[in-house]
Amino acid sequence: MKNPSRKHLKEMRKTHVVEIKEIFLLRAPGFAYVEDHVNGINSLLSNSPYIQHLDLSRTKFLNDQHVAEFSLFLAHLVSINLTGCWKLTESALFSLVINCPSLSDIKMEYTTIGNESIGGGGGEDSNSFAVVSPKVKSLCLARCQYLRDQNIILFASIFPNLEVLDLSYWKDVSEETISQVLKCCSKIKHLNLSYTKVDDKALHIISTSCCGLLQLLLECCTNVTENGVKHVVQNCTQLTEINLRYCDQVKANVVSLMVLSRPSLRKIIAPLGFSFSDRKRKVFLQRH
Known about the structure:
By secondary structure, the protein is α/β, with parallel strands linked by helices. Helices cover 33% and strands 10% of the residues. The protein is built from ten helices and ten strands. A ten-stranded parallel beta sheet has the order 1-2-3-4-5-6-7-8-9-10, with no helix packed on it. Helix 7 runs parallel beside helix 8 and helix 8 (226-235) runs parallel beside helix 9 (254-261).
């Protein structure tokens, strides 16, 4: 069900919906009629016990308390998209972990995780949170400007079986944090660190901790050089995709080295200056 209207949400309070498995509330209004929308969403979810996929992206009025309330109805939820719900903090994430045991895919891009002061009374204290959620395989926290080291380290301990992790645009990434995260999450296969300050030391840690890595996105990581890239290509033997676009310190000739040394690679987004000659194309095709 996509983008139910305000009138539709009101009607849902009077009905019993039991078969809905997917809800997409797209581009929800801002702050007008907030109470009606919240009550309608809660009523819809309470009468839909089999919902598996919920998209509330850009629902700007949602706060931590709202998520804490409606998550109680989502025992079968598998994926949720809360991208652009800028009032949400880590308290909302904790509510989902506690109340949604089947959850495996969480998107909370462009939220205020790390800034608990605006959350709207969510609930769980991050310092005492001790639940482990082994079913969660994918976590997107891109563009979360308040994200802190302690948040990421805690989330890694909560989600030890993560396979997909998106931390792009996180300004404070460090090799120490990367190291602690990967000690908890050794099964990561898709890692997005684009537009971060990740450097060669962090790439060395990644290369030794994530031997099963399939995809590494490093777009505009200006502290990375070809030395760090070589560590990844050498040690991540299953790597199929790497993005080095706008990595200004990576020399273009590293692409040829990657092609020759890592046959598993299927997609390389090269740094500026790389020229794909006919001879290189022939070598690539022979290797792959």
